[in-house]
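Write out the 3D structure for:
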Amino acid sequence: MHRYRSHTCGQLRDTDAGNKTRLSGWCHRIRDHGGVLFIDLRDHYGITQCVVDPDSPAFSTAEKLRSEWVVKLDGDVRIRPAGTENADMPTGQVEIYVRDIEVLGPAAELPLPVFGDVDYPEETRLKYRFLDLRRERLHKNIMLRGQVIDLMRSQMKAQGFNEFQTPILTASSPEGARDFLVPSRLHPGKFYALPQAPQQYKQLLMMAGFDRYFQIAPCFRDEDPRADRLPGEFYQLDLEMSFVEQEDIFAAVEPVIGGIFRQFGEGKEVTPSPWPRIPYAEAMAKYGSDKPDLRNPLVMQDVSEHFRGSNFKVFARLLEDPKNRVWALPAPTGGQRTFCDRMNSWAQGEGQPGLGYIMWREDGAAGPIANNIGPERAEAVRVQLGLAAGDAAFFVAGDPEKFVKFAGNARIKVGTDLNLIDENRFALAWIVDFPMFEWNEDEKKVDFSHNPFSMPQGGLDAMNNQDPVTIKAFQYDIACNGFEIASGGIRNHVPEAMVKAFEIAGYSEQTVIERFGGMYRAFQYGAPPHGGMAAGVDRIIMLLAGAQNLREVALFPMNQQAVDLLMGSPSEATYQQLRDLHLRLNLPEK
């Protein structure tokens, strides 16, 4: 028999009854039933119930065992007594009568329990992550992660994509966040950068003629942590294709992402192909977000005309400025004063002066706004929004560019509080036609609004003859349940157009050559039309696992302050390390 085990803790069945077995694992739970000890032994594969009674030669050792001790047990497999079976466990028909116990690894007093799913402080969970990972839910999430990545690989290869690994030490690139810099010992005063994405390398692979590329790529961004992005590093399914248009990318990606949600979504409905294509401007106007949660049925509408020249002077005066609008957010079944007042209080908590509303009764409209605009205008609003008695509508007014984020949050709040969101769906859609450029009010200049390497719609002609902020790009995102889970674009592969795009954003041709010299040179020697995208592995798994935070689906994440509590990083460098790198510290005063 093997030194440590003849079976795993998830393997034994009723057909093994009468056989001898050897198991090794952790003492998941120990129960004393009238002097008889029950040990639930756990390993990676499952749990087996083991029984030690006072007649067993192993009883004296069993009395010393505590939670999470690692032991080897020898015993006999037997059918559980009638009425004690556990249908929720694969091994629930059998138990082990233990004859011998060897302690392989005793455990100190635990800083957090492994048995159960008690919510513990994040600091403790991350410091003792090796214990946290033993817990059933987190262990299951990490195994799901591996299975999802396996499916990604197999589906990409089935479509003729080849997997390549691009460099980790590279040059700095403007991807929208700060770089992690690595000082060069051999080149004093110079630095490598960890890649924010393999963007340039994957485009260069297309220049090199490889046609279809993918990798499960690590990406590094020195940005403030948030719930939907891990601090420091994250992983993405990165891909690029040659001789393609936008729809070709969509056709390649939908089966992969949709297939993942269908296989691992536990029966939830998944949007069938082809997914909706929603222009960016429409998404913002209807949902107040470029990553709308389409499980929420609420759609905002512009109702400015019903307030123009009305007796509701606050809105009427605002509408004298042509850039201002009034948007309405329908609230089916929300026509109770208590709910409307609660939404008004919520808006004030969000820094707004309030949230105006109209409620509809059987006898007509009610509320201060309804009283001001009169029954005919209130009825016109109701008809436009498709509402009925018992419903309400909330209103936001002003410059849509300034209130759109608040309006989108109000849509989420109303949909959630009225239980309108279908939790049994993965609602997927393409968000398309992103603006190529945007006006940076702080710096009084035009910036790239998304990916600087994307092809502007209309090409060089549009950049020469249009107001830059009106130019749309061949850029697209995948939205799922309120998250952006993928982003990409058709690339700007024409050297003159590339230079012009960067000039509009304030970069000289010389700067383009210096910072993107490899790609700029490659474009001079026969560049194929190409495009691609990247899907966030961590976010997809978070959605599938039903987790609220990306740290629940990553092995060894940092905390919100970008500190690895388990390994103690970031840490101070030694004097010798700094000397080798020709570095001197200039720390801020405490």
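The two ends are 63 Å apart (CA to CA).
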